[in-house]
Amino acid sequence: MGQAINVVQKLWTAGVSTDIVYDVSQSQETMLEHCRQAGITCMALVSDKDGNYIKVKSFEKERQSEKRIPESDLVDHIVQKCRTKFFEERNIRETSETVSPQNTKGSLVNASGSSEQHGSSASSNINVLLISPEKVSSSGRRRYETQIQTRLHYLASNLQNKSNDIEVLAVDLPKATLINFLSLEFDGDEQFNISVKHLLSRLPKQRYLKSICEEIHCFKILKRAAVVVLYSYKDDYYNILL
After folding, report:
1. How far apart are CA 132 and CA 155, in angstroms?
2. pTM to 2 decimal places
3. How far apart are CA 212 and CA 190, in angstroms?
4. Buried b / exposed e along 80-119 (16+ C-beta atoms within 10 A)
5. Does residue 195 contact residue 184 with C-beta atoms inside 8 Å?
6. Fewer CB within 10 Å of terminal CB in the chain, N or C?
7. Using CB atoms within 10 A of its CB, is residue 77 exposed (0-12), middle (13-18) or buried (19+)?
8. Can you list the domains of the chain with their CATH numbers?
9. Chain segment 129-167, per-residue pLDDT in tens
């Protein structure tokens, strides 16, 4: 039971809504049916006999899959699944809302950072703000920008109907720390400040993290940017702040 509680705490910290079920009398089939009826698409099975590994069952419509992964990778695995599901649902929604195609031309940033013209596409710009605890040279900034544009090229092509701009905050943080920012709330100043306080209480490097949170506040609360990406140029990993 202690392992299950620990898993739930990690998922909640990462911003993933999670429930815990502890009833040895229920079969997996019963729990799967409960999840389907409740609209839950992912279930983690925690068992003492599996040690530090956890079975993750994913199901959507008629599809079902099972994967055995280390507990240390569970949060990232489920966050990625939630992100994929979000993109799929939004793409379906945007497609259904499109009444007629428009023959417009736009600019799409390619892997090299230059622009290509595409018919029937909206302009998608990747704006990079480098937030570094130390001074970075001009060549270093250009290298990071190219790295980020290459990494987010696919994301840009998928989000071009959502927003003309993708705001990227490039930070010098490890992946394990970056995941914690998914717990931030963006419904207003009060909720945001409370979530920032909770975030900072769990992590070191207070001054640097505060400067990152200030920029997130600027884009998400003040400018109401539709797409803000927090990117770790240290680990080449990113989270989308929704």
Report:
1. 23
2. 0.52
3. 18
4. ebbbeeeeeeeeeeeeeeeeeeeeeebbbbeeeeeeeebe
5. yes
6. N
7. middle
8. 2-96 (3.40.50.800), 107-241 (no CATH)
9. 999 999 888 888 888 888 888 888 777 766 655 556 889
